[in-house]
Every structure is written in structure tokens, then in C-alpha cells.
Design goal:
It contains nine helices and twelve strands. The protein is an alpha/beta fold and about 280 residues long. The strands form three sheets. It has a five-stranded mixed β-sheet, sandwiched between helices. Strands 10-9-8-11-12 form a five-stranded mixed β-sheet, sandwiched between helices. Strand 5 and strand 6 form a beta hairpin. Bound molecules: 2-acetamido-2-deoxy-6-O-phosphono-alpha-D-mannopyranose (BMX).
Length: about 280
């Protein structure tokens, strides 16, 4: 029976899952050694792979979703605070070499977009966007029922889009950015800031809501630029209770042509794994 092994390498957490007949039958999660350099990540991914007991299996498909900008199997982290020393790192080659099996590589948010489009809340929408607000801010685009993959890797690097003050969206609205702002303002971390905002702290609310306003502005632009009908929201910040309502509230301030249907990702944190598992067997 065909088995599929999928890695999902994120800025904070990484996962491996074994799929059989489209279902996850085994999984493990670890903290990404994000500050130890890419070789350290390959080491732990290889250890997880060998722990799965499928290493010798003959009918095996393997894919990896990874945070970062991908060109020709090499990964670059735009933000070294998220992944240190990932500059055109040949992940596809290095991982394949370590586990002795070819690996197909996808950006994590693009993979999640495909997962949601095929099996989640994107089903039936020809133009669909998956947006993750997490360690970084990432996205994946379905255009004309196809996953948009650009030759130069800028398929949907929404976090690199500019905001009014010249910063990137990621530097304004990611969990990492909220964490920095939180500490500057005397909150312990991003979660403490968002919790305080939800409990009525006006200062925290101003910072939290401003970050969501920037996301809304980009979604409004993309709605009229690409004809996106639905957005699925994912990521540890995006899936926080109340985030979706705050984002919808910001979107409501735009005229009708900018309105876009925004929902929570149905597959939750598994969207990337599910997307890659499907891409490696059908694509
Ligand atoms: C960043 C960028 C994207 C990624 C997104 C979400 C890096 C390392 N990553 O914008 O490629 O899709 O973060 O990644 O530059 P996550 O780690 O927050 O899930």
C-alpha cells in the first residue's frame, strides 16, 4: 500500500506525519531548532523520519512544507529572526540525501492553501486565499482552481508586502512582531498582549487591532486585484479566539467591492500536512 510521509517545518513548531489512504496514522511534533541553523533542522527531521519505521518501504512518497521563500529546492528565510542562516539553503537536496529518498518541497502556506482548497473550507472556490498569521505572516493562492507557484518563489509572500509606514506586513502583524511590541509596552509576550486586549486593556487593544487593520487592508487590495472569493485564516495567532471577529470588523469598514468572505481554516494546524500529502501523490 502506498504510504506518504510529510514534513511541515515552521518557524516555531515542526511536524512529521505518516498518511495512509489520505488519513494521518502517525505523527510527531517538535520545536524547530530555528536558531541553530538549517543543518540542525535536517538532523531532527531525519531522526523523526527514521522513527516512523517506513524507511525501507518501497512504495513511499515524501514531501515537505517549509516556511520560507523557495527557488529550485533552496530555502531563504526573509526574516533571520524566524530561521537563522537559511539563505538559499538546499533543503530539498540535503533532506533527500539524509533520508535516502527524493523529497518534494513546498512553502508551508502554499501547501496549506492547497489542503484547505481540496479538503477544507476552500472547496468549490476557484479563487481562494489561505492566510496564516503565526511566527510570520504567509499565504497561499488558488487562482483558476490551481495552486499558484511562481518561478521566482514569490507565489504569495504576503508578509513581504509593504504597509503605509514602509515596514513589511510581517513586521507589523506577525506573532513575532506582536511579541516585540508587547515587550516594548511591558507585556510578557504576544499572547499576554492579545489576552489583555481581549479583556479590555485599551493600550493592548490599540496595538493588537492596528496589526489586524494592516492585514485587512492587504486583503481588501487582494480582493479587487485577484477576485478572491474566500479567505481561510490559519496560524497560531490567526486561529486565536476572537481574531477572526476582529478581522471581519476591520473588513466591514471597506465598501462592498472589497468585501471578502473570511473563515477559520477547517483543517486547523494540519492544513499544510494535508496539502503536501495530496500534492505529492497527485501533482
Ligand atoms: C514568513 C515567510 C513565509 C512563510 C510565513 C509563515 C520565512 C522564514 N517565512 O512570511 O515564507 O510562509 O512566514 O510561516 O521567511 P510560519 O513559520 O509563521 O508558519
Amino acid at each position: 500500500m502506498k504510504k506518504t510521509i510529510v514534513f511541515d517545518i515552521g518557524g516555531t513548531q515542526s511536524r512529521i506525519a505518516l498518511f495512509e489512504n489520505g488519513q494521518i496514522v502517525w505523527r510527531k511534533q517538535i520545536t524547530t531548532p530555528s536558531q541553530a541553523g538549517p543543518d540542525a533542522t535536517v538532523d531532527v527531521m531525519a531522526q523523526l523520519f527514521f522513527a516512523s519505521n517506513v524507511a525501507g518501504h518501497t512504495d513511499l512518497a515524501i514531501g515537505a512544507a517549509v516556511t520560507g521563500h523557495i527557488v529550485d529546492g533552496c530555502v531563504t528565510a526573509h526574516n533571520p529572526d524566524i530561521l537563522r542562516d537559511w539563505q538559499r539553503y538546499p533543503l530539498q537536496h540535503r533532506l533527500a540525501e539524509r533520508i535516502n529518498h527524493p523529497v518534494r518541497l513546498f512553502n508551508d502556506a502554499r501547501a496549506a492553501a492547497w489542503g484547505e482548497y481540496r479538503f477544507g473550507t476552500g472547496q468549490g472556490f476557484d479563487e481562494f486565499l489561505f492566510l496564516t498569521v503565526s511566527t510570520g505572516v504567509g499565504a497561499g493562492l488558488i487562482l483558476g482552481k490551481r495552486l499558484h507557484i511562481a518561478k521566482n518563489g514569490f507565489d504569495a509572500e504576503i508578509g513581504e508586502m509593504k504597509t503605509d509606514n514602509g515596514q513589511t506586513l510581517e513586521n507589523r502583524a506577525s506573532g513575532t512582531a506582536l511579541g516585540l511590541l508587547a515587550m516594548q509596552q511591558g507585556y510578557e509576550n504576544a499572547k499576554a498582549l492579545c489576552d489583555a486586549a481581549d479583556q479590555g486593556d485599551e493600550n493592548a487593544d490599540r496595538i493588537y487591532q492596528a496589526s489586524i487593520r494592516e492585514i485587512a487592508r492587504k486583503l481588501a487590495d487582494l480582493a479587487v486585484m485577484l477576485g478572491i472569493q474566500r479567505v481561510a485564516l490559519g496560524g497560531s495567532v490567526g486561529l486565536r479566539s476572537g481574531y477572526l471577529q476582529r478581522l471581519r470588523q476591520e473588513m466591514a469598514s471597506y465598501p462592498g467591492i472589497y468585501q471578502i468572505d473570511i473563515v477559520a481554516a477547517q483543517l486547523g494546524h494540519d492544513a499544510g500536512l494535508v496539502g503536501v500529502a495530496d500534492l505529492v501523490i497527485t501533482d
